[in-house]
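Here is a typical protein record:
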Amino acid sequence: METSELLIFGKDNVQGQNLKDRFGGNGLQVIATRNQNEAFQLVKNQPPAVVIITSLANDVNDGLQSVRQIRRIDGTLPIIMISQYSTADRVISAFRAGVTDYFNVPFQHNEVMERIRTCLNGQAPPTAGAVKKNGAACRNNRKMIGDSQPMQEIRGYLQKVAVTDTTVLLTGETGTGKELAAEMIHRCSLRHAKPMISINCAALPETLVESELFGYDRGAFTGAQDTRQGKFEQAAGGSVFLDEIGDMSAFTQAKILRLIENKMIIRLGGNKNIPLKMRIIAATNKEPEHLVSDGKFREDLFYRLNVVRVHLPPLRERKEDIPDLVDAAIARLNRQYRRNVQGLTDEALTSLMRYDWPGNVRELMNLLEAVFVIPPRNKIGLSHLPRQFQDKMKSKKTAAGDERNHIISALNSTKWNKAKAANRLNWSRMTLYRKIEKYNIVEKRKPPR
């Protein structure tokens, strides 16, 4: 049997020795070291087939500099990072530095071994250079609209994450585009030729969980006249998008955890293990850590899903994207309804920019679609927007005026002592300063006598 060299190094000596004991044999010759210079010399003079870098929990930047150094020596060598410290920023930094894949502790050794075998078979995900070449296809089919700084960073990160097989957890408010992000990950991945199957976890009745997710064999129950594949089997080789995981029942959580751990299913009424290879992308509009602490979500399942975390910002935090979103929506609606609406008037666009969009992009899309029921001949003006929206903007304007007057009253009553005024308003001084700037409040001093 031909042997391939696996280099393991990093400050976590215990983890390194554990990995060496686990992966030694099986056609692998494992070299483990804590000496960075020794590791770099091996990469330069006797390049291994795969490098694993272990990282400690007490050092945020541990391992990242090593990744960058290896990338300067070899731009294509597969690098797997295993870290005891994992946050969204940490994972982003790791992929930007050039890792091929990323695992956080605790992890499954068989999953790491599978990734090593993939690398050895020449199927390792593309590195940074290859991602740039492959990125054109993703950018040319962009559905995640917006050129704000947050959206540019998210699209760039999703492209890098896509080419790994890492599990991804998408978080964000309702309507922020989590499903679009999942579609982008799948479309830019090595699994793009296979299907992405979406599962709405909130709409799964417990009585149908097993038959819907895992399928059933003929005769499994009354009416089961044929064998049927479940959602996971339909996604074999592709991706599964678990939407609204925060609303899964405890029973469903247990079933999905077992599938993730074993990488196989048994159809309802069957006795045959069916191995499955797929990528899992999960999403929730809730804070998963709060669900875990409240006992509503299994901690072990959370750690399985929370490998790479991507948070999608609400529309109110990227309002500069509203004009692009509006243009794209109007172009789509014109095609759909065979209209020729020319865009928005300045007054209508200003109103959209002032609104905070609690329903995010979905609310904006619904508003524009409502306009197309009786569309204008040319541009959409403020009067063409739904009456409910116009009423909200009027009440917002009134509320803003009331708040401004309330602030001025507090400032005048304290002789413009901002500390005392903030205390009277039950605000911090920073909040008061922001409000003064927002409403353009200027102290009117009495002229000298």
About this structure: The CA atoms of residues 277 and 446 lie 76 Å apart.
